[in-house]
Structure formats: structure tokens, C-alpha cells
Amino acid sequence: MVVDRLREAADTLRRLPDGEARFRLGLRSAWPDVVRDAATAYAAAGPSVRLGPPSPGAIDRLETTIGWLGLLSEPQRRIAWALASGVSVARLARLIGCHRNTVANRHAAALRIIAGHLNRGATGGAEAPAPPPM
Question: 95 vs 39, which has greater pLDDT?
Fold first, then answer.
């Protein structure tokens, strides 16, 4: 459940429109771009497809899920978000500079922290009763 929500949050964030793009683009011309080679002229790279906007429910779940990341340490947060965003474990291990099993173990620990927090919230924050003495 936690992994699915993190993946959905990463996908939702990817689908949100970039409200600051118009400020970063700077001055632009109304003229079309100059074609420099034949491959560009005939769209050899293929069409680029833009994903549709996320639903309002997905945006609400994104806000909740982003709050979960505050429970994690910085390295755990980076690993959890990178894997949710589609980065492979092997590639992330190369980027971080550790073994892929270490990345997988740190990711599992991060998921346990989030799941533990959610489970405590589901029980009303009450701890499990202590077993009777023998």
C-alpha cells in the first residue's frame, strides 16, 4: 500500500502543470525554430506525448503522501522518492555509491517506518496492551 501511494504521488507530481515555466523561459520569438538537420525536420525522434492532468483526489493523496516523507531521514527520503519515481535499484545504488542490497534494505526500512506510523494512527495511537505476567 505504501509503495503504491508513493508511486502514485510521484506520477501525480509529474503530471502537475509547471506554473513557473513561463518565468524561466525568458524572452521568446513568435517565429518558428530553425531546422538545423533533416532528422529534426522530419521528426525522427517521434512525437512527444504529454500526460493528462491528475485528478483532484490524486492531488489530495499526493499532499498526504508527501507528509509521510517527513517521518524519514534525509537518505531514506531520497531513496524512497527515487524508487517511487521509477529509478531502478541498480542505478540508484551506482549513484549513491553502495550495493543494491543496501539500497533495497534502506528502502524496506523506510517503508516499515511509514507503515508503522500509519498502523499506529489506525489504532487511534494506542499502543498494544502488554502481555499478562506469567
Answer: 95
